[in-house]
Amino acid sequence: MSSFSRRRVLTTGAGAALGLGVVGATATTASASTGTAARHSAGREETRTLDELYQATLKEGGKLVVYAGGDTPTQQDGTKAAFKARFPDIDLTLIVDYSKYHDVRVDNQFATDTLVPDVVQLQTVQDFVRWKEQGRLLHYKPAGFAKLHDTFKDPQGAWVAVSAIAFSFLYGTAAVGSDAPRDPRDLVDPKWKGRIASSYPHDDDAVLYLYTLYAQKYGWEWVAKLAAQDTRFARGSNSPGDAVSAGQKAIGIGTSGSAVPSNSPTKFVIADGHPFMGWGQRAAVLKQAENPTAAKLYLNWQLSAEVQEKSFNGWSVRTDITPPAGLKPLWEYPNAHVDGFPKFMADRAAVERWKQTFSLYFGEVKGDPTPGWLGLHPGA
Questions:
Q1: Domain of residue 216, CATH code
Q2: Helices (H), the chain
Q3: DSSP letter string over 262-278?
Q4: Shared-domain flag, residues 227 and 88
Q5: In sequence order, what are the beta bridge partners of 232?
């Protein structure tokens, strides 16, 4: 993909000063004429097949750039490999970074007229509401849109959730033996001191919401006891699971996992009556995307039955796909608080208060970002 030859870089001054994405009156006004109509249009579902969209994408140029939230550069390698196997002639660039960096990166690209991605796929669910209001998102309903649970789609198609994810705690079955922790209350038992890894709740908003649910359920005394457990905190929600899998720690808090019964050496814990958190990773086609047909192909593929039925945790965003035996759809767990996460993310002042409070208990975030430092325009 060429650098910025196809886009005008704004000169210094008021326009360039919009770098952190609070798009002001100029950007809002510029999008108003198209944004207002788009926000209120319903549209119909995509009727083309994946193969038809594939051929149309090749005619468009066969390129696609996706900015995806995640913890390591290789975290989406499985997605890339599966997409390339299905559509071998598409030049896919998929950039993984923390969602909280990708969103402001995209805001800065809007402000400087240097947009790189065609699709954004992020944990920062509040951004999709804001971008919709700013007229930044293409209103589009992929095939199967009607089958998506209402929690996992915008009614006008401005965004969809492409995967259903849960965060909780897990443990190594060999490490804990017959005395496994049954619910979060057991994590503060002194016998686990020095044997717990966690991602920083004040570094990742999904982990933050999980810890917020814990604090609300068990009180600050529980948080203080956990802080006395000599817990090893690290950046990246992958880090607790990695520590347990490597045998470094017995328990990992603040990470994703699968509740599907298996012979895995680790067990992801969901306990009746005790909180965990579920959410949908949202994705959208940017209205200024250089490769809109490729972006549509990507969303249709992600939401297709062939992909949703293979989700690593057994959960789908679609209502017509039955989870494996022993599981219910994610939205049927009241203790998953699926509707609570978007509300939590919308109140940024409250989010900041929670972050700073947890930093008083657990210390400041330390360490380099696990995806590395990617700068302003990765994938350009």
A1: 3.40.190.10
A2: 25-39, 50-60, 77-86, 99-112, 125-133, 173-176, 205-218, 220-227, 239-245, 292-303, 305-308, 340-346, 348-362
A3: ---SEEEE--TTS--EE
A4: no
A5: 197
Nearest Cα to Cα of residue 251 among 259, 243, 260: 243
Residue 166 near residue 270, CB atoms below 8 Å: yes
Answer for the pair 240, 300: CB distance below 8 angstroms, yes or no. Answer: no
**Number of domains making up the chain:** 2
The reply to whether the predicted model has a pTM over 0.85 is yes
Rounded Cα distance between 327 and 314, Å, is 8
Does residue 320 contact residue 332 with C-beta atoms inside 8 Å? no
Assess whether 342 and 196 both reside in one domain: yes
26 in a structural domain: no
Helix (H) or strand (E) holding 256: strand 251-256
Domain that holds residue 71: 32-164+279-319
Instruction: Kindly state whether residue 325 falls inside one of the protein's structural domains.
Output: no
For residues 133 and 78, state if they share a domain: yes
- Least confident window among 14-23, 89-98, 184-193: 14-23
* Cα distance between residue 226 and residue 199, in whole Å: 13
